[in-house]
Design goal:
52% of the residues lie in helices and 9% in strands. The chain is an alpha+beta fold and 213 residues long. Helix 4 runs antiparallel to helix 5 and helix 4 runs parallel beside helix 6.
């Protein structure tokens, strides 16, 4: 029997979060190797020299983009039919312009001449876009969560973390409700469990949890 694929992941990375959620909902078993981005293991860098997470190693195949890991998992099993609720343009807007503003809003001191308030305003334009999408339904593609929701919400969560008081008072009630539901889901809780660092312990974790049973 072939060994389960290896997943290099970092708990707090939004890219890694969305990949873990797709793996969890699909029930696709992997061997999780939890890392720190400031201490990347040589084995991960050998598989993917760019040094970002997630990295999935399935035999000779390496998937080192989070959307690719999501698609890889859901192609194997998609019990909630996430793949039918996927908006590539909306996800690209999240991963491009919104992520640009998010980084410079939340971490403005890391960027020369970055004005946090300016980038908050830039990011808010995307949140208003989401607000319009959510005007008629609880999720971005209707009554059920799908690929787009899971791909985007970890980044909106980070945007909120930058200033929770401001975010919670902003005129985006649909986005606030949507984010609260996704953050409070059992699925999200299950992928945010803390694990020992693989580099320190050599311990691989069976993930998702049911794959250990």
């Amino acid at each position: 029997m072939a060994e389960k694929p290896i997943l290099y992941s970092f708990r707090r990375c939004p890219y890694a979060m969305r990949a873990r959620m797709a793996l969890a909902v699909s029930g696709t078993p992997v061997r999780l190797r939890e890392i720190l981005l400031k201490a990347k293991p040589a084995e991960m860098l050998a598989a993917s020299p760019k040094g970002t997470v997630p990295v999935l190693v399935d035999g000779e195949k390496v998937v080192d983009e989070s959307l690719g890991v999501m698609s890889w998992a859901l192609a194997r099993n998609d019990p909630e039919d996430w793949l039918s609720r996927k908006d590539d343009a909306l996800i690209a807007e999240n991963d491009g312009p919104f992520k640009h503003h998010l980084d410079r809003y939340k971490y403005s001191t890391r960027y020369e001449d970055a004005d946090a308030e300016t980038h908050r305003s830039g990011g808010f334009e995307f949140l208003q876009h989401l607000e319009a999408r959510l005007a008629e339904s609880d999720y971005l593609h209707g009554a059920k969560r799908g690929f787009s929701d899971i791909a985007i919400f970890p980044f909106v969560r980070q945007f909120r973390i930058a200033d929770k008081v401001w975010f919670d008072a902003a005129p985006i009630p649909k986005v606030q409700a949507w984010l609260k539901v996704l953050m409070g889901s059992d699925l999200f809780a299950s992928v945010m469990e803390k694990y020992p660092l693989w580099k320190e312990t050599g311990e691989e974790i069976g993930f998702p949890a049911q794959s250990c049973q």
